[in-house]
Amino acid sequence: MSKQEPPERDSGKDPDLPSNDVTEGTERAPHRAMFRAMGYDDQDLSSPMVGVANPAADITPCNVHLDDVAESAYEGIDNAEGMPIEFGTITISDAISMGTEGMKASLISREIIADSVELVTFGERMDGLVVIGGCDKNMPGMMMAAIRTDRPSVFLYGGSIMPGEHDGREVTIQNVFEGVGAVADGEMSEDELDDLERHACPGAGSCGGMFTANTMASITEALGFAPLGSASPPAENEQRYDVARRSGELAVEAVQEQRKPSDFLTKDSFENAIALQVAIGGSTNAVLHLLAMAAEAGIDLDIEEFNEISARTPKIANLQPGGERVMNDLHEVGGVPVVLKALSDAGLLHDDALTVTGNTIGEELEAVDPPAIEDIDVDYLHTVEKPIHERGAIRILTGNLAPDGAVIKITGEDHLHHEGPVRVFEGEEDAMAYVQEGKVESGDVIAIRNEGPRGGPGMREMLGVTSAVAGQGHAEDVALFTDGRFSGATRGFSIGHVAPEAYVGGPIAALEDGDTVTIDIDNLELSVDLTEEELEERLEDHEAEPTYDNGVLAKYHRDFGSAANGAVTNPGAQWD
Q1: What pLDDT does 498 receive?
Q2: How many CA atoms lie within 13 A of 444 on its CB side?
Q3: What's the longest Cα–Cα distance across the chain?
Q4: CA distance 195 to 175
Q5: Which residues of the chain have pLDDT under 70?
Q6: Closest listed residue to residue 395, CA positions, set 476, 315, 508
Q7: Of the residues 19, 232, 467, 487, which is catalytic?
Q8: Is-catalytic flag, 283?
């Protein structure tokens, strides 16, 4: 009598799901045994497998609470009869690494987050994802991974920190950075700075102003990667955990309906994201990240399009760093949907762009029904008809110093112009020493080079320098430009992302002390009083040497693309 073969296991699960590769069939018994060791049962193994990508860490208050956020997302997946699988990845604290050599790791972490989440999703055959972000580079890194894998995915923000209180007023980390400059200038005592330091950051969550984290979280709503209203609940608020549970449930629904990033990410959704960015005075870093995400999605987004959208979209929100208010203030009056509604009502939003919910953003706005700005009695939100500025906050400058573009955010005076001699620094440290020595004077132009994506490598943010300048009272009358980046908390006359960068022989590498530089915001110009022939002659013998010849930083000297295209490293996403 021949031995009977055991019956094939049929769970009834959708046969097209990637997780079937590790859960279905007799030959997958060893794989299921591994899952059973972790407490998963037959019902789990018969359900869509949804990964929870969690960058929780004690490295930064932005991420210190994310295990709790991830747990709520896990519950949401489980409640929706999905199979939740949590896994981790790295983060770097921009604020803690700021002003040090370690800041070079920040942009690199975006790429490593994207790579690691992509690898786990691919290797473990996940059917869908909830991708969680806290600190700045988490957000684009997580979304880039979701775009690459094209698994049904929901983005979940960890929420922002509440403002602290000092001397009877609300304060954030921006005030501490600017306090350093004020101490150097004799405008603040060290004792007062010490007290400010102790009260500025009262708990968990990302930096509270409309800096990079809150800008990117807001943008996820406009892109359709996250449900409307999900960006603004603070980190230490029960609403944040309600959002997390809803995100888990939505991820299972997205798997069941097979709603993938490629289904809702379009040119229109990226234009919606840019419109929101320029309307709220969002971080310049969002330019870099949106370009990178569009490149990953195969959407041809050109840096000049930020100018086109800014030209037709007014700035209507006055939040830090340009104003005084923080994300929680926006939350208390209805959150990001309030701004999106204003843009939609004015015809400045593509209402028919799809979202991860399966509905259009217009339908989602109708369902949320946020209040109109004219019905909200606050001084930090303005109507489209009577805006803060007629043009949006982001401008792309070009000229013979930045043929491929440079980025500035307008936080104050709208008609900035300067023409005069430049002082050139070969990196952040030298520039910071110059500022801290009190040598900065009204009308100065400071150029900081060799801080680009490849030259740094890693394109350091230089909040220390810009805050020290602002703290000495020169936010609007001293200009800085760099092939590196400025923080989302930077305000004033600060121009970043100059491309091509010095490392690859961009014109910024040809600058010499005393060259006459013209910065004209109205005419979108960044140029130097040199002919093309003079620039070419100065660059004739230019040869850059990498500053690291071993380890992860050496890789990124080689791998980063231009800031003008998002500084991507994925070969399939680099386009001219």
Answers
A1: 98
A2: 20
A3: 97
A4: 12
A5: 1-11, 413-414, 488-491, 574-576
A6: 315
A7: 487
A8: no
